[in-house]
Amino acid sequence: MVESMQIDIKGMHCSACATRIEKVVTKMDGVLKVNVNLATEKGRVMFDPNQTSKLIILNKIKKVGFEPSISRNTSYSTESKRKEMIRLTWKFSISAIFSLPLIWTMFSHMNLSLIPIPEIFLNPLFQLALATPIQFIIAYPFYEGAWSAIKNRQANMDVLVVLSTSAAYFYSHYLTFTTTNNNGLHYETSVLIITFVLLGKLMEAKTKRKTMDAIKKLNQLQVKSAIKFENGKESETFIHQIVPGDVLLVKPGEKIPIDGQVIEGTSTVNEAMLTGESIPVEKSIGNKVYSGTINENGLLKIKATKKESETFLSKIIGIVEEAQISKPPIQHIADKFTGIFVPIVIIIALATFLLWYINLNPGQVGDAIEKAIAVLIISCPCALGLATPTSIMVGSGRAAQLGILFKEGKMIELLSKNNMVVLDKTGTITKGEPAVTDIMVRNLEEKLFLQLIGAIEKNTNHPIAKAIVKEVEKRVDVIPNIGSAITIPGHGIKATVNEKRIVIANPSYFKKQANISLKGIEKEVKRLEEEGKTVVLVSVEDQLQGMIAVADEIKETSEKAIARLKKLGISVSMLSGDNKNTAQLVANKAGIDHFQAEVTPQMKAELIKNYQNKGQGVIMVGDGINDAPALTVANIGMAMGNGSDIAVDSGDITLLNNDLNRIADSIIISKKTMLNVKQNFVWAFIYNIISIPLAITGVLPPWFASATMAFSSVSVVLNSLRLRNIRI
């Protein structure tokens, strides 16, 4: 048995923090998998409850120096982050105010005598009084984080900040009481580093909040209360109190509060936020409705079929959150690099100090410390740690808006590496439900003909019968009652309607009836069957009076979607369990060059293995039920959804609105997201490659290095936010 726990983690400052938590928790007995996301400040742990527990895992993370808690509802999380933002704003504001006089004194160091400086600002004791609260109160969390890291034999951004600011502060403190040379003081270096780090964190937090827009919008769809209808009375009740079987009223303009089934009323419902489809869907008795969708114009009475935690919307939110927490393979490169980067930076900073103190400017401790501080600060690996998770968050959020759900972040990376799409036919390329395509009536009035067959077929559950009844109801207002009926196994049905003997059956049945002639319609039957349509004939009082053709037509969007895939350089193949003629017709209409007919679910899986053995990366697209073996075997399994619980639970990616265009959309999002990740990596690496030598040579002073470090992190997040505007 395996359990999963999602955790909120406070106190992470850089990717080294996330890596440290993963390393420590992974080593615990019973822990199977750990993912920690710096950008979302969340983690997910999979563990064996027989070997460990949630409390033990949380305590372990706490011992490493962080504040973990089991994730609660999003409103709680949002409120917590809002309070944290307020605290951060206050800290930065106080630090900035205390820093201003010390910044002013920098002008004296630069010999800018044109700018008057109050005498008290140059007083070492005054500078000490301003710097001390910033160093030990405002910056206390950095010391706390650094100590925790060192205790666990790790090094992170806190260590770099503490080393650099403490060196500047304590050296200045020493000079304050041992020399009268005010120009040797570096209090402004210490406070400016802390102030700029706080500014960077504040800007980063504000921009990171925008990367959570997709989750925020999905959570805003959730309703807190509903109108319950019981014993003829209406009462308001909380959503968490609703259980399957409860009857609810939903007025025009209101959100559907829970997943359920319409038991009274008709309306149109806007499901755009769940499926990405902007056209409202008609709902009447028997239709399913989903939590978070909007009832547009009619009063609906629905019966709840799910609890709040089991709704379709809850599953979607869970999938999107999981995708944003999990890591794609490319992130592990950054994790390995940052794991050794901070110790290397400390060594480089020490070497810089010795180089300046011994060779470049012998005996000048203050100057050497300043150069070493610049190296420590400029090298904080924050941008590198944010490069991947922010892009994955925004990319998966943009996909969710289009009704594309990535189960894990790694699927975003893996999807773009495949070069072949294999499509199921029924329900994927086609609509998945039969529809009447042709009606031919001989000697009867068409209205009477439709009434007679509608009366018989409305009492039958066969898919073809349902398609016929649906068409009849569009054309006639009144359907008479049936007298008696007898099923003809494998062929059709005999019945009496308005005292008329009627037979509705397939052509093979009528060919065996010597008293009923098919003369004059055999060619038409053959033509329709060659088009892949199912034909049923109708006789009244032993006289053939008409026929109806039914077919599962291809979706309006399928041909365009397949053309888009080909334009992207992806080969397309169709696997169908239907006969060759029908499969051939569908393939021709959809523009598919390669197909296989009469294949079983197991054969589909074998054929996909054959494609993979030939070097193809295969994306299998199916309805998530009978295509389960193929979805599992493929490199990426993509399930068509349209609100199906099974589809949401199947495959690696779910397309909620059943539109094949979303396959191309998901591939485009995948490619652009991974390009964005690479851009972030390039920027993070180039920033360090250029900045570290400049810091070593003294071109970058510590305060400027701190500002540049903050800007690098914010720029990575801003670049990731561009994915919100991906044009499809």
From TrEMBL:
The keyword Phosphoprotein is assigned to this record: yes
InterPro entries given in the database record: ATPase_P-typ_cyto_dom_N, ATPase_P-typ_P_site, ATPase_P-typ_TM_dom_sf, ATPase_P-typ_transduc_dom_A_sf, ATPase_P-type_domA, HAD-like_sf, HAD_sf, Heavy-metal-associated_CS
Family: Belongs to the cation transport ATPase (P-type) (TC 3.A.3) family. Type IB subfamily.
Start and end residues of each HMA domain: 3-69
Transmembrane segments: 88-108, 120-143, 155-172, 184-202, 337-360, 372-394, 680-697
Keywords on record: ATP-binding, Cell membrane, Copper, Copper transport, Ion transport, Membrane, Metal-binding, Nucleotide-binding, Phosphoprotein, Translocase, Transmembrane, Transmembrane helix, Transport
Protein name, UniProt field: P-type Cu(+) transporter
Species this protein is from: Heyndrickxia vini
Localization of this protein: Cell membrane; Endomembrane system
CDD domains: HMA, P-type_ATPase_Cu-like
PROSITE patterns noted in UniProt: ATPASE_E1_E2, COF_2, HMA_1, HMA_2
Broad class of where this protein is predominantly found: membrane
Enzyme Commission number(s) of this protein: 7.2.2.8
Catalytic activity entry: Cu(+)(in) + ATP + H2O = Cu(+)(out) + ADP + phosphate + H(+)
Pfam family, one: Hydrolase
Bilayer topology annotation: Multi-pass membrane protein
